[in-house]
Amino acid sequence: MEILMFMGLPTSIMRADRNPVLRTTGIGNIIIQGLAKDINRLALHDTFPHYSTIFSCWVVAGENGSRRYGFVHFDSNEAAESVIQELNGMMLNDEPVSISHFRSFQERQADMEPTLIA
């Protein structure tokens, strides 16, 4: 990823992939919870380049910078699994992070629904 200035604003340029299957299956997507306030998208991206090709990387913060978490989408599930196994629970900029596979809202809701036992 490269950061350029465009009309006075920092702009990132990332690899584009036209294969919608890679973007929509969720394969290779991880979520990192508990990010330090000084971690931005570029810093998060630069944390994982040696694992595999990164398709996308985002950092989300709640109001006043609380509840910071990030998403990283790798080109393979193996790369995502390696990151989870090696870095889950580790310190990133003096903050412990929790790393897991990203699950959509529908997947999380399906897990919470009670099952009927006949």
Structure, explained:
- The protein is an alpha+beta fold.
- The chain has one domain: RRM (RNA recognition motif) domain (Alpha-Beta Plaits, 2-Layer Sandwich), CATH 3.30.70.330.
- The chain contains 4 helices and 8 strands; from the N terminus they run ββαβαββαβββα.
- The strands form 3 sheets. It has a 4-stranded antiparallel sheet, covered by helices on one side.
- A hairpin with a 2-residue loop joins strand 6 and strand 7.
- The longest helix is centred in the C-terminal third of the chain and has 11 residues.
- It is globular, with a radius of gyration of 16 Å.
- The model has no long low-confidence stretch (mean pLDDT 82).
Task: Give a brief outline of the structure.
This protein is of the alpha+beta class.
Main sheet, how many strands, which sense, barrel?
A: 4 strands, antiparallel
Low-pLDDT sequence parts? none
For the secondary structure, the number of strands is 8
Class derived from helix and strand content: alpha+beta
Total helices: the number is: 4
Instruction: Tell me the β content.
Output: 25-35%
List the helices and strands in order: EEHEHEEHEEEH
CATH first level: Alpha Beta
Task: List the main descriptive attributes of the protein structure presented here.
about 30% strand, Alpha-Beta Plaits, 4-stranded antiparallel β-sheet, about 120 residues, alpha+beta, about 25% helix, two-stranded antiparallel sheet, single chain
Please write out the topology.
Elements: E1 2-6, E2 9-13, H1 20-24, E3 29-33, H2 41-47, E4 54-60, E5 69-74, H3 77-87, E6 91-92, E7 95-96, E8 98-101, H4 105-112
